Amino acid sequence: MKQNHSISAFQSYALVVMTVVGVSILIIPRNVGQFVGADGTWIILISTLLTMLIVYGFTKLCLFYPNESFTRFTEYLLGSKRKPWVGKLLKIPFIVAFVFIWLAILAYVIRSFGEVVVSTIFENTPLEVVMVTVVGIAALVASSEIEVLAKFNELLFPFIFIPLIFLIISSIQKGELVHLLPLFQVDWKQVIKASINMIVDFAGYSVLLIFMANYQQPQKAIKIHSLAIMTIGILYLTTFVTTISVFGIYETEHLFWPSLETVRVIDLPFQIFQRLESLMIVLWMVASFTTVSNILSAFVELIREYFGLRKHCRKWISLILIPLIILLALVPKDISEIKYYVGIVGAYITSVDIIVPSFLLVIAYFRKKRGRSNESVSPS
Amino acid sequence: MNRFLLHNLCVILVLSMIVTGCWDRRELEDRELVIAMAVDSEKKGIHVTSQVPIPAVIVGKGGGSGGSGGKSTVNFNARGETLSAALENMRRKLNKNLFLGYLEVMLFGEEKARSGIREQLDYLRRDSEVQRNLYPIVVKGKGSELLDRGTEMEQIQIAFIPRMITVGRKRDTMMPTRLNDILITLSTPSRQVPVMNYFGLEDGQYKWLGFAVFKGDKMHGVLTPDETVPLLQIREKKRGKKIFTTCPKGTGSIQFTPLKLEQKIRVNPGPKLHILIELEGNISEKTCTQVVEGRNREEVVGQRIEKTYQKLADRLIHKAQKEWKLDIFHLGDYLRAYYPSVYKKMDWKKEFPNVPIDISYRVYVRRSGANIR
Q1: Would B298 disulfide with which of A304, B95, B245, B365, CB 3.0-4.6 Å?
Q2: pTM here?
């Protein structure tokens, strides 16, 4: 099957940013502040750098086979040409690993998003209804071609920066420098633990394993992906600093959705616009919605390619996935249980994201070295 | 292809029915908008008064057909052990749902404030509709009295108070305390001393009487308008209200309007705190019988004003340290942020009364008053 190279450089940038930025931006100030207090300011920076390293690994791996997607190149990487079934068999654990990651992220994003909406706006609406509508529409988007998805992301990309304006206004109006101090109070063990814990908040970049096959200019990918992760880091940092400056670490711990509350305390002139948080929720809805649709799309593409199905099957695959995701999202009983599961699944995601690409990279490095001449002549 | 289109249309149609948000539709007409709420303590539980505007009357007044003299608001009373219980009782008198999203002022009767308001604050924090920007105030006497009587200027009488605080905030003379500030103060261990504005009635009109100082969630004491000046300057870096001082020579008084303030806190080992406040401002009134001559008359007047400020501040620091033993200036929070090693070593709350704090003022008089001679 021929891949079409339809994702432009900017679209790939938007794709990564929109996939990663989701519901976690609402709770980052609390999650980080709880463990390391005001020191989160620079711990976010450290974990941004760590994530950039991981993404560098992913990108490097994909660059070995620039026009092939994950399902295809793992087969070449792990198997041999004489016995193709070896590769087909050995790639299964790797694919399953990412299937679990994406399922977990999808379930988490949808559940948290549902919780946000139900606890702030639609108080009488059942959680399930909100979740089903979001997943349903996301599935509709995800079943379209990757090219369409990339354009969709590009279109919505500017919207996720609007909340920043309000966060900064709030910080200027209500922020206190005292809340952001003292810095450098945590010891090194905590720093390392917190930075590694925070990598989960960037989870979702693994979709590039699928999407990179469609890049127009894969050679630019390293630069673009680093830029994307940097953008996300800045987004997270701004959210953290503004929220903490308004509430301080102690009050932030008491807030369910700290970034949302930050916007709620803005003093607006003339009381024309009240309840800015509704606008915020709409904008964050965009961010989490693209997260869901992008990951779902990558997921569908993975399944489609694995079973070698035709393009129009995407719709049916995504339809089948809806109940699975909803059921998984309903596993935690309440918000505190979500947190408990995130702790477990988060460790799994981070370790897979670190181990898998580095393992495959090592193999790719040795095999490429040995069979460079073979590789270049063998078409897929 | 045609079948494909039909298929998609069906999906969109079905989705649009669910996603319009009609599931959770709440009409404005179905809500009783509470503008102000007063909480007073009773022998058993609390007494809650909610003020609700009558939409028809308010619309009528705007159209010019008003002037009928009818009241534009209704007060609902209810009793209960807790705030939520009282509100539940209140619902039995209403034909609509209570909506606290437009709550602008929360009035606490002094007696209630002194016995603790943690429970009520908790309710306000939990209700996602309640704005964190509302003004909580303490009322001398009963809170509900302010809802019954008061300055009759605004369509909704009680709206006078939030406007008053807003203006006071802009002029730097009042504590800009919102619900948000109270909640932050109570959850930050190094703060714990909320300050609310203190209101009362005088000749049937609202009057600002100073600050109500809390210890945790319980009201501890009252600061008079004069005492609020150093508190605002040290704690909030605000200028405070105008002050009067006596003339350097002869009789009469000088009124000083501060325009700019700079505040520095120095911590010497010990710890020993030194607060320096620099003020810049104008003389807005002078009724001195004798004129100060010479080139340094601004300085002479400035020193005079410094002394007045100094006296006020010293008295307040003494009150805080020796009488109340309460860090009303939130100096502990400053230490936590800027001198964490010092703060960690000591039990600030216990040691605060014995920490030497001295304050010095520097006043620059920019225009000492144009005397036409």
Answers
A1: B365
A2: 0.87
